[in-house]
């Protein structure tokens, strides 16, 4: 069956272009949406000439641990939970492999949740940074480091956590074993070269495979 060269080709070209862009974004961060969120936070800051925040895997992992404990109750995009402050040093840091003597000060926190998984850009604008309080936290001049964690069930709800620190970057929240830390069983955290684990891994991987397949299909059709 021969394909008619038609207006359709233009539509395909546009579609392929966006798919290529999406595939590139995906492959850059190995499909880790926590890293995408850190990029978005930093882009939002640098647009105002604020310094880039160091992407700390130690902080990211603790953000994941925190929100993992918090998941379950999501009302109006706000997770409702009470986590004792001591849990950071007594539970989250050891669980992540953060060297305790390097435990610094966390100076800001943004949490959010949604009934289902949202792309990083939507999670940013619709869940995490949708009011003045969170925006001013994100743009605080004294912050130096950031970490993002997210976790959720396959069918939702999903939970996100951003933690900031104002310590001297790179000398606090250091991970054991030259930064390897301890692999997490669920969710994603930023600053890590590890892909997401658990349900999210499947979601992210499925999306990457789908993108690649669609992209190849596009190229094929364009060359017919
Ligand atoms: C969820 O959080 C709200 C607000 O704190 C609380 O009123 C409600 O009882 C919680 N529900 C569950 C199932 O824990
Ligand atoms: C920025 O964060 C610091 C703590 O790190 C806090 O003392 C200060 O009030 C914040 N500044 C603004 C403008 O919110
Ligand atoms: C930064 O984030 C805020 C809140 O989502 C948004 O309104 C603003 O347009 C963003 N700025 C840039 C430069 O992306
Ligand atoms: C921290 O380490 C990262 C990666 O090694 C580097 O890009 C960044 O410049 C460092 N930041 C500071 C403040 O030393």
From TrEMBL:
Signal peptide positions on this chain: 1-27
Domain of life: Eukaryota
Keywords: Signal
Full protein name: Uncharacterized protein LOC115728755
Upper taxonomic lineage: Eukaryota, Viridiplantae, Streptophyta, Embryophyta, Tracheophyta
């Amino acid at each position: 069956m021969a394909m008619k060269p038609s207006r359709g080709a233009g539509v395909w070209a546009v579609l392929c272009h966006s798919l290529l862009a999406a595939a590139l974004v995906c492959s850059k961060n190995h499909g880790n949406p926590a890293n995408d969120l850190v990029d978005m936070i930093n882009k939002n800051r640098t647009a105002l000439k604020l310094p880039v925040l160091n992407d700390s895997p130690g902080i990211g992992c603790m953000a994941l641990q925190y929100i993992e404990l918090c998941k379950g109750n999501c009302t109006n995009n706000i997770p409702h939970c009470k986590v004792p402050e001591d849990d950071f040093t007594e539970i989250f840091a050891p669980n992540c492999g953060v060297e305790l003597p390097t435990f610094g000060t966390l100076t800001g926190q943004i949490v959010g949740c949604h009934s289902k998984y949202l792309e990083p850009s939507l999670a940013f604008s619709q869940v995490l940074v949708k009011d003045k309080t969170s925006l001013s936290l994100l743009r605080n001049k004294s912050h130096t480091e950031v970490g993002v964690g997210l976790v959720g069930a396959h069918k939702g709800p999903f939970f996100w956590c951003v933690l900031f620190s104002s310590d001297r970057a790179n000398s606090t929240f250091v991970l054991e074993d030259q930064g390897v830390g301890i692999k997490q069983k669920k969710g994603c955290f930023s600053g890590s070269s590890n892909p997401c684990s658990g349900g999210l891994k499947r979601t992210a991987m499925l999306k990457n495979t789908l993108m690649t397949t669609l992209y190849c299909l596009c190229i094929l059709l364009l060359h017919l």
